[in-house]
From TrEMBL:
Name of the protein described by the UniProt record: Metallo-dependent hydrolase
Source species taxonomy: Eukaryota, Fungi, Dikarya, Basidiomycota, Agaricomycotina
Residues annotated as signal peptide: none
Reaction catalysed by this enzyme: N(6)-methyl-AMP + H2O + H(+) = IMP + methylamine
Any one GO BP annotation for this protein: nucleotide metabolic process
Span of domain Adenosine deaminase: 29-353
Domain of life: Eukaryota
UniProt keyword terms in alphabetical order: Hydrolase, Metal-binding, Nucleotide metabolism, Zinc
Entry's transmembrane regions: none
Keyword Hydrolase part of the UniProt annotation: yes
Length: 355
């Protein structure tokens, strides 16, 4: 279940720990609340999907452009991703591989297993996972079918271990955003385990004023709301204010909030989903010394430690906690009781299942 490559900063932090420290982190109940399905498919599984895709008769697979076909071939050969641009460049290929229900189910199952099944050491990466994914319409499925396919896999686990967040991509048309939110609400009302709605994708894209009614609808139906916000330095302050006006329960990244935004976030105790490796690798935060996690830790503000995308960032939830524990410069050097408090806050920021 843990057949997944860990490298770079996360690996160094993990390797620096004493066996007793590692045992402490493994035993700690941890919630993963910010993991994107298509960014979290373990590489061996992605490679198998690429082999299956290339071996299938051409008339049964979607037509691919040369660039996407080259991407699939690179995945099959076991590409090593060194830069975030390479990851986003491979997305069309990853999407081609998860564009039909059986392959999407395989991918979802592998991501769930990575986080929730015990590894060789008997420990699971996470006690609880809120997996998120953007519904896609393809030749082989509708968006509703996409959500149901992922839900079928999520619901193989008990409710106290796994749930689904439906992501809206900023590039979606308002009509598609509406379709996704309505499908999420309908499934929740039918007793399915959709717990929230997310906003993700290119932070520069889209007009979020047009999404406002759908966020309101989601909240009215009891769904949790989490928004990627201010993850890049030139994120306009008025866009931050607009997103906060939707009264989100949690925020993704929130790297560049100004003082007025921070004040609102404190007032509402909005949980911040912190993705340390992701921020360092994407270079939105140059160094751990200046990471905004320090600001929230000092104020005892609710945060959750998350992986974001384990494929490109080559991290794991355990490794992110290792970064909290490792002494500087590899990590933040938090004490065991401080880390325990962080993990507890994360568990408390879970969205509520339907009653
Ligand atoms: C913003 C991100 C992201 O939904 O197809 N995604 N959006 N910032 C990030 N930080 C680096 N990482 C991933 O998973 C892939 C999608 O998640 C979003 C992107 O929209 C990406 O297309 P799903 O399962």
């Amino acid at each position: 279940a843990h057949d997944h490559l860990i490298a770079g900063h996360a690996a160094d932090a993990l390797a620096s720990l004493a066996p007793a420290q590692l045992a402490f982190l493994k035993a700690l109940p941890k919630a993963e609340l910010h993991a994107h399905l298509n960014g979290s498919i373990p590489l061996p599984v992605l490679q198998q999907l690429a082999r299956d895709f290339l071996a299938a008769p051409a008339e049964t697979t979607p037509a691919l452009s040369d660039a996407v076909r080259a991407g699939v071939a690179r995945l099959q050969q076991g590409v090593v991703l060194n830069q975030i641009d390479e990851f986003f460049g491979l997305f069309p290929a990853i999407y081609a591989l998860t564009s039909a229900p059986p392959a999407l189910a395989t991918a979802a199952r592998a991501v769930l297993a990575h986080f929730l099944d015990p590894g060789a050491d008997g420990a699971a990466q996470a006690a609880y996972l809120e997996l998120r994914s953007t519904p896609r319409e393809t030749e082989a499925m509708t968006r509703a079918r996409y959500i149901e396919t992922v839900l079928d896999e999520v619901e193989r686990y008990p409710a106290e271990r796994a749930a689904l967040i439906v992501s809206l991509d900023r590039r979606m048309s308002p009509a598609v955003a509406q379709e996704c939110v309505e499908a999420a609400i309908k499934l929740r009302k039918a007793g399915r385990r959709v717990v929230g709605v997310d906003l993700c994708g290119d932070p520069r894209a889209g007009n979020m004023a047009l999404f406002a009614p759908y966020f309101a609808k989601a909240k009215a139906a009891g769904l949790g709301l989490t928004l990627h916000i201010a993850e890049i330095e030139d994120f306009p302050p008025e866009e931050t204010r607009r997103l906060l006006s939707f009264r989100p329960d949690r925020l993704g990244h929130a790297t560049f909030l100004d003082e007025a935004a921070k004040k609102l976030v404190h007032e509402h105790k909005t949980c911040i989903e912190i993705c340390l490796s992701s921020n360092l690798i994407c270079k939105t935060v140059p160094h751990l010394d200046v990471h905004h996690i320090r600001y929230y830790l000092r104020r005892n503000h609710p945060i959750n430690i998350c992986t974001d995308d384990i494929l490109p960032f080559r991290n794991s939830l355990l490794a992110e906690y290792a970064i909290l524990m490792a002494p500087p410069p590899l990590g933040l050097g938090l004490t065991e009781s401080e880390i325990e408090a962080v993990a507890r806050m994360g568990m408390e920021c879970r969205f509520r299942p339907a009653v």
